[in-house]
Specification:
230 residues; mainly alpha; 7 helices; 0% strand
Length: 230
């Protein structure tokens, strides 16, 4: 008999969120920076150097921000697990009743809930409470280093794309080419992230592209305004 194999995508949550956020931020922030500086009347050389500096600063900022924020999540998870471990040691009978009550609330009758709670507690008490009481699992566990590296790497990849366009485009057409290419990059990112998460492609494309285009438009408008004032 062949075993039915199901493909799920929840195991990608940890790195996919950080990677999509990093790449999106890399494209949007770098392109916005380029458009703002270009609209203010900066030279081609200044625009290129500014965008490269933005890549370096942004990648470091993303890595540090992700590491700190996800580490805070990990600290909270570890504290909850430590508290649960203490409760299991001090009141195992009470914890067993608590676990059975969870299964009853999910639809099991009392005898079956008691049996399931007893067997799972014998097998792995802490793991069972972590999963069914606290909602923690290996799939969704916080991984600070992984999130930091994924964010920094994806930001760098996203930021490089408009920088390449800046380097290749003529100064007179720089704003046009950066705008169009960045929208195309954002659309591609939305499609790839949707495919990786098994979500509808057009929803991902629309969501990423619209917000990115809005951010670039606002920044370009601010650059043009301040450039005119100067």
């Amino acid at each position: 008999m062949r075993r039915h194999a199901e493909r799920h995508h929840s195991d990608r949550i940890g790195w996919l969120r950080a990677a999509v956020l990093g790449a999106n931020d890399g494209i949007v922030s770098t392109a916005s920076l380029v458009l703002g500086v270009a609209a203010a009347g900066a030279s081609h050389h200044v625009i290129l150097m500014t965008s490269v500096s933005g890549l370096i600063a942004g990648a470091m900022s993303m890595a540090a921000g992700e590491f700190v924020s996800v580490h805070s999540q990990e600290d909270t998870e570890n504290a909850d697990l430590a508290r649960e471990r203490t409760e299991l040691g001090q009141d195992p009978a009470g914890e067993l009743r608590e676990l059975a009550a969870i299964y009853i609330a999910r639809g099991l009758d009392r005898p079956l809930a008691d049996e399931v709670a007893s067997k799972l507690t014998t097998h792995d008490a802490l793991g069972t409470h972590a999963r069914d009481e606290l909602g923690l699992s290996a799939t969704t566990a916080a991984r600070p280093t992984q999130a930091a590296l994924a964010s920094a790497a994806s930001f760098s990849v996203g930021a490089v794309l408009p920088i390449v366009v800046v380097a290749a485009a003529a100064s007179s057409q720089l704003i046009l080419w950066v705008s169009l290419s960045s929208i195309a990059f954002l659309a591609a990112l939305g499609a790839l992230s949707a495919l990786a998460g098994a979500a509808p492609v057009w929803i991902g494309v629309w969501r990423v592209t619209i917000w990115g285009a809005l951010a670039m438009a606002v920044t370009a408008g601010a650059g043009a305004l301040f450039g005119a004032v100067a």
